[in-house]
Design a protein that fits this description.
By secondary structure, the protein is an alpha+beta fold. The chain folds into three domains: 2-85, Rossmann fold (3-Layer(aba) Sandwich); 114-174, Dna Ligase, domain 1 (2-Layer Sandwich); 180-363, 2-Layer Sandwich (D-amino Acid Aminotransferase, Chain A, domain 1). It contains twelve helices and 18 strands. It has helices at residues 10-19, 51-60, 73-80, 89-95, 98-107, 121-131, 158-164, 221-234, 268-271, 276-284, 310-314, 344-361; strands spanning 2-6, 25-30, 42-45, 63-66, 84-85, 115-118, 135-139, 149-152, 170-174, 180-188, 194-196, 199-205, 208-215, 239-248, 251-258, 297-304, 319-323, 333-341. The strands form three sheets. Strands 10, 11, 12, 13, 14, 15, 16, 17 and 18 form a nine-stranded antiparallel β-sheet that branches. A five-stranded parallel β-sheet has the order 3-2-1-4-5, sandwiched between helices. Strands 6-9-7-8 form a four-stranded antiparallel β-sheet, sandwiched between helices. The protein is globular. The two termini are 40 Å apart. The protein binds adenosine monophosphate.
């Protein structure tokens, strides 16, 4: 069985690493010559819109999936007319546009920050008269890891913020004074079986995820499962999905969802009975889903822009190193490390050591 993946970055790489024990093969389509998954399968090198490559992918892959949400939605739609494509292209289309996504949340009764459409500086000025400061201006598409975003603290920031988004179609949304950020990773198979991972509690640095901790038995688990279930159902979803949420006064407010395996779920490789990567494959192949139960207490730390020495990581008890095979560059995720321990003390010690190491080597 051959799985086609649009994108050949670290997420595709980890999907492939989970797939080999299941006897699966991989073929990737990615515009970058040195995409880091290409050691793990055949690499069709070229543009996502290249009709010849798309035809080849559709012919060679039994099922096609994708590893990031900026793959052009029409490409997924085209492929779905020739082969099976999961998650459904509709999920991609919704997640690619913050305006569409936020309206989708509202239709499904999922709380989301107040927001308004901004096509020009007048729209922005008008919206801010009702929204109130602080707020965040975000481009409707192509934004991730805090890119294409600007904080508005007062009317004096409007022009600068608008210049920063370079006049691109945007939304402005109320700044949420959250007590913490969490995400829920869920998975649904072709025949409709659903499973949820324990919540991840996420810490960002400079708009980029830095630490994700597994939170078995979190008080917000049921609320998060309720919201993500609505997405799964409305999209007739297949595969892994991640919903990012803010917590304010015991209420969860949706920020965005990702129709793919997610950075905040990397701890599931060692910290759950079945990883998000394996369950994504099981789901799209309509195999029985694996248990999502936590194994010990786990956390993942991203390495951004700088690589740790392998020996330094492995000297930390219960640390598991995942190098992505990418050369370090400012702001680039090049590795993550998971710590998993059976008791709180060893977990804390390991996570503290890991954080110290990450602070020494990364540039964020
Ligand atoms: P995003 O690209 O939308 O996921 O935003 C990146 C990060 O910016 C989030 O994880 C939050 O830490 C922060 N952020 C985004 N939107 C808001 C908001 N409306 N209120 C407060 N913080 C936000």
């Amino acid at each position: 069985m051959k799985i086609g993946i649009l994108g050949a970055g670290q997420l595709a790489r980890m999907i492939a690493l989970a797939g080999y024990p299941l006897g699966l093969d991989f073929i990737f389509l990615d515009p970058s010559v040195d995409a880091c998954a290409n050691q793990l399968g055949e690499h069709l090198h070229g543009d996502y819109n290249d009709p010849v490559l798309l035809e080849e992918l559709a012919k060679r892959a039994d099922v096609v999936t994708y590893e990031f949400e900026n793959v052009p939605a029409p490409v997924a739609k085209y492929l779905s007319e020739h082969t099976r494509v999961y998650p459904p292209p509709k999920a991609l289309q919704v997640a690619q546009d913050r305006w569409v996504e936020k309206n989708f949340f509202l239709e499904l009764g999922i709380p989301t920050p107040k927001f308004a459409l901004v096509d020009n500086l007048d729209d922005l000025t008008q919206a801010m008269s009702t929204l109130g400061y602080p707020a965040i201006l975000k481009t409707r598409s192509q934004g991730y890891d805090g890119k294409g975003q600007s904080i508005l603290k007062s009317a004096a920031d409007l022009q600068v913020a608008w210049d920063l988004v370079q006049g691109l179609p945007s939304i402005v949304e109320a700044f949420v004074p959250f007590s913490r950020e969490v995400s829920i990773i869920a998975v649904r198979s072709v025949s409709g079986a659903v499973a949820f991972y324990p919540l991840s509690e996420n810490l960002h640095k400079g708009g980029i995820l830095r630490i994700a901790e597994s939170r078995a038995n979190d008080v917000m688990q049921a609320q998060a499962e309720g919201y993500v279930s609505r997405l799964l159902q409305a999209l007739d979803y297949v595969g892994v999905i991640a919903l990012e949420l803010f917590e304010v006064d015991g209420q969860l407010i949706a920020n965005e969802f990702a129709p793919r395996v997610h950075n905040s779920g990397h701890w599931t490789i060692e910290g759950a009975e079945t990883s998000q990567f394996e369950n994504h494959l099981r789901a799209i192949l309509d195999l029985p889903l694996g248990s999502t139960a936590a194994v010990g207490k786990a956390a993942m730390v991203n390495f951004i822009g700088g690589l740790p020495e392998t020996a330094d990581v492995l000297a930390i008890e219960s640390a598991h190193l995942h190098l992505y095979g990418k050369s370090p560059r400012k702001g680039r995720k090049v590795a993550h490390v998971t710590v998993r321990a059976a008791n709180t003390d060893s977990y804390r010690n390991a996570l503290d050591s890991l954080e110290r190491l990450a602070n020494q080597v990364d540039d964020s």
